[in-house]
Design a protein that fits this description.
188 residues, homodimer, Dihydrofolate Reductase, subunit A
């Protein structure tokens, strides 16, 4: 059964990762890219292995310059956007631009994911839209030991009914606390 | 050497505990009081054993009704307030009301704590004042698997220079992820 899993890094004060950070790959400080090792790599590798497709927002895609010419993902990525854009293929990764909303993106991502999970990689607004629609089954939050002070908060603009969370796993390195939550959506 | 340690519960979306929650004792959901056991109790007991005095804000004190007629703390508590109020003693716990600011409260708390730590128990505004003044040495954050959606954020109104954090310990139960940070204050 495919789960929809939010996979994102957040500072201790609740802000999402800056421009240098990839899909749930940890928060670098001072703009240095973060090369995960140990537990951080383990968590990232498990997420990748369980993921069959990802959804990101256009801004996230632009901020990382479409992940450049490398192919960091072994699965299709669906990019939510308001403007049409032709599909782009980089190695094993395909980027499909979806202009007709989150339900459409999710349907396409589910289809592509097979029996694996669909990862929601950010940004904050996309995560908030999926949470508000009651479409999230789990969250993998990479909590970075950093205070950012300003920017875009991950959990913002959330109205009732708020989902109930169950904390199902915690792993940590000096660089992050990785917390997995099950999300129990309430009827509205 | 006495450390100043912020000890507080926070929801995943960054809000501080509601009225039912004691000093860093975890976030109850739906207003039910939380009786820690296992890891949660262990973390709380260690904090208590290492603490020689605590500082809280008047609103926090009022919200829990001065912790009633029981004596949950085995150390003196200093309550930051703008209005004079006579010292109150409940069993082993004394409540001293401090009207001349955080430095004065800290000096009195340090004096009372001996070689143990001074705990900053909340609310958010008090924590923010101590952080802004560069007076915090460590933080013990009890991150509750709850989305609250609105209220008072713990990390808000933080301006530069923001302290650097070092994540020095993580323990978890199904009820919370307890994260300990060292706080490295930057010169301003």
């Amino acid at each position: 059964m495919t789960d929809v899993v939010v996979d994102i890094s957040m500072s201790l004060d609740g802000f999402v990762a800056g421009p240098d950070d990839g899909l749930g790959r940890g928060l670098g400080e001072g703009g240095a890219p973060f090369r995960p090792t140990g537990v951080d790599k383990e968590v990232g590798d498990e997420m990748s292995a369980g993921t069959g497709a990802a959804i990101v927002g256009r801004r996230t895609y632009d901020v990382v310059d479409g992940w450049g010419d490398e192919s960091p993902f072994g699965f299709p990525v669906f990019v939510l956007t308001s403007r049409e854009h032709p599909r782009r293929d980089v190695g094993e990764t395909s980027y499909t631009f979806v202009t007709d909303g989150i339900e459409s993106a999710l349907a396409q991502a589910r289809e592509a994911a097979g029996d694996k999970d669909v990862s929601i990689g950010g940004g904050a607004r996309v995560v908030q839209q999926f949470l508000a629609a009651g479409l999230v089954d789990a969250m993998q939050i990479h909590l970075a030991p950093v205070l950012v002070g300003e920017g875009t908060r991950l959990f913002d603009h959330l109205g009732p009914p708020l989902p109930r969370l169950e904390q199902v796993g915690v792993r940590h390195s000096p660089y992050a606390t990785h917390i997995r939550y099950r999300v129990e959506n309430r009827s509205r």
